[in-house]
Specification:
11 strands; five-stranded mixed β-sheet; single chain; globular; alpha+beta
Length: about 150
């Protein structure tokens, strides 16, 4: 009987440990601000038109229960192209799209104001950082077969 209980305890402990290993990463966890999607190869030909530039973007999602100030936060690619949020607050449960080209900033779309592409069409890494420089999240891709990556 004692041997049976010991095995049950060991099995239960192993199940808990296995469950812990299978938990989602922080970027996927509820209650975080994280990179959600990178659309790195805008539709059509890379003509450097504003429409094409704005077809390339990174999305940031807030899954916390309150708004989070992103003022001073940055999104950086592997070549150190940096976008810095001005005065901006991302509402709870909301997503903001940071587009490469120009446009008028809104609550759901921010614009880097660039005349050239940021995200490589085959591989790159996006890093989201707080204004202090602390890394919040990263998302990498390594494929020219698809046009976007859900982080």
């Amino acid at each position: 009987m004692r041997y049976s209980r010991t095995l049950s305890t060991v099995a239960a402990t192993a199940a808990v440990v296995a469950g812990t290993v299978l938990l989602p990463s922080q970027a996927q966890a509820v209650g975080s601000v994280h990179l959600y999607k990178i659309y790195y190869d805008s539709p059509g030909t890379d003509s450097r038109s504003n429409a094409s530039l704005n077809g390339e973007y990174v999305q940031i999602r807030n899954t916390t229960t309150s708004a989070v100030s992103l003022t001073g936060w940055t999104v950086v690619d592997g070549s150190s192209h940096t976008y810095t949020f001005g005065s901006y607050s991302l509402g709870r449960g909301k997503t903001v799209t940071v587009r490469t080209g120009t446009g008028t900033n809104t609550a759901t779309n921010r614009y880097q104001g660039r005349a050239a592409y940021v995200w490589n069409n085959d591989r790159d890494t996006a890093t989201l950082k707080k204004r202090t420089g602390a890394r919040v999240d990263t998302c990498s891709y390594n494929s020219a077969r698809v046009d976007y990556k859900v982080c």
